[in-house]
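Retro notes - structure team

What went well: the batch runner handled both jobs without manual restarts.
What didn't: labels got mixed up in the shared folder, which is why I'm recording both outputs here explicitly, each with its sequence directly above its tokens.

Job 1
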Amino acid sequence: MSFDITIFALLHVLVFVYWLGGDLGAFYTSRFLTEPGVSPERRLLAAKIVGDVDMAPRTALILALPTGLVLALSKGWIDGPLWWGWLALGIGLVWLTIAWKLHFAHGSNSLINRVDLAIRWVLALALLGAGVASLQGALILPVFISLKLILLAAAILMGLYIRITLKPLGPALAGLSGTNAAGAEASLAHTLNRARPLVIAIWVFLLSAALLGLWTPSTL
């Protein structure tokens, strides 16, 4: 294996490490949002920490496809020029900039938010379509790459569903210092309890994709 391919493989592995590790950190820290006896100030601090830590898996998700494409082209798993991968990496960095701008704006920039959502929907549907088309023989891709495309699409779509599920989180956090703090705590717990199984589903997708990357089956 050449040094270049080794670097590309390392980058793709780091995507997995930071995605799963960041998700685990955010998942664990989110417990403090619903732990009894925690003051509203500490809950808000925990929410901020969760949001900051969650940028690791958000970043990893964005870089998963371009690093994987560069690696696949370098190894000859996908037939095409290497500049396809560099182009994908450049587009990924632009999307990554959008995601971080949205994070620092605390989701208040509606235009950036719409752009980010549009990218996620288009990419998820494109990956799903490419994966299914390849499995049906319409595209020439290794089976493990086709399945990984479908799993990445599933992770993106699950992430979008988690966003919808977590919509009551902001009002619940704001209500912790209000007159109906008990109701806000109940809403907070209910929202997070609904979201946690969805996060675990993403871990299943992620671990399945990692297994396929190590196994690299050529047929079903």
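Job 2
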Amino acid sequence: MVGQLRSVVLDCPDPSELASFYEKLLGAQRLAGGDDTWVVIVANGTRLAFQRSDDYRPPTFPDPHGSQQFHLDVLVEDVEKAEPRVLELGARLLQKDNDDTFRVYADPVGHPFCLVWLS
């Protein structure tokens, strides 16, 4: 092993604002410190960091030219209860899956994520 994964980092125009969205979505806690360029939250032992990017451009989903580089899967018990809450937090629905095991959303600055559930 060369190293261990420390954090998943998302570029965004306002780290504090996007961190607040994910704190509420995941029930995460914000770590002390940070500034207006870098914020870290922890959800179930996983660090998710937000880094200011002044020239941020959101990924496009779906995009046949490959602008999306990754997405997060968020496990929920009941998507019909979870969906109204994520929309209230500022997400928007991008795609419902045909096999009914996940739905794709965008966070407030355009990063795609999925609500997934066990069927």
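One thing worth noting from job 2: The chain has two domains: 1-54, 70-119.
We'll revisit the folder naming next retro.
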